[in-house]
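Quick one: structure for this chain?
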Amino acid sequence: MARTLFAISDDLLALNDLLEQLDGDVTNPEVDAAVTKWFAELANDESKKLDGYAGYIKQMEMESVAAKAESEQWAAKARTRDNRVKWLKERVKVYLELTGRTKATTETGRVFAIQNNGGVVPLIINEGTDPRSIEPQFQKVTYSFDSEAIREAIADGKELPWAHLDKRGTHLRLK
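Got it. Here's what it folds into:
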């Protein structure tokens, strides 16, 4: 009986269950051993097993896309809720300030209280101030590599003892 592209064999289901139990930790030796065993047995009915493996990959890709989409929806909902909470709190703060108070207690004992923010006091640099125009003790100089210039120099044949171009990596494409 022919299996569909997305039919996953029992050994791949077992691998999936193992990965679920280990929270997706593909570095776990048990996972590596299970995959190594699966590939060692691949010679028997290679086409069918690779089809199951491809189906497993496609299923994981689809689940990843769905999880990311759902995650984005929840993140948008969280941002909306955070903004609403901030707005609601600000309204109560304005009310307390207008009534000349820093604290109010609700009927059930909850307390609204205006408090000073913690941390360092905010620093305001006057707009238009050029960092190069101030005293050196108030400047911070940072250095970074100009990757584009380095690549260009190497491509033009310049030997740089502290840099070289590596080989391109490879990846598996599933059609």
